[in-house]
Write a structure and sequence with these properties.
mainly alpha, 5 helices
Length: 147
Amino acid sequence: MGFQHAYSAYQHTAVKTASQGKLVVMLYEGAIKQLTAAEKCFDLVAGKVPAHEIEKFGNHIMKAQEIIGELQTSLDMEKGGQIAQNLMSLYVYFNRELMEANINKDKSKIDFVHTMLSQLAEAWETAANNTANAAAVTARPALNITG
């Protein structure tokens, strides 16, 4: 029980201290984790979701959709310009594909959204790291740090 409490506290601190870019990456990672779990609900031989896995499958899909909804609400449509508009269109499309995947138990739609989210997560992680590195380089002269 103590470990779970410590891990929960660690997660809470990680979220509270993360940069905006890192928070976006964490959202992507959460959605990817849910889609991976949904994919694991499929029977490998039959290629279908067995009856005893349907509820769990649906819950994973809905959690991924909720996270994508959070990504949507985090967009600044005024400042984000065309990029924000394009991301909004993608998020709407992803949620529609996941809704259909949930209804029809269509693994190919989940795989597609999973792949796209993984690519976006990688791009956001690169951007977040570049922003953090740029801030550190900019801060060095101001803090009189050498080398």
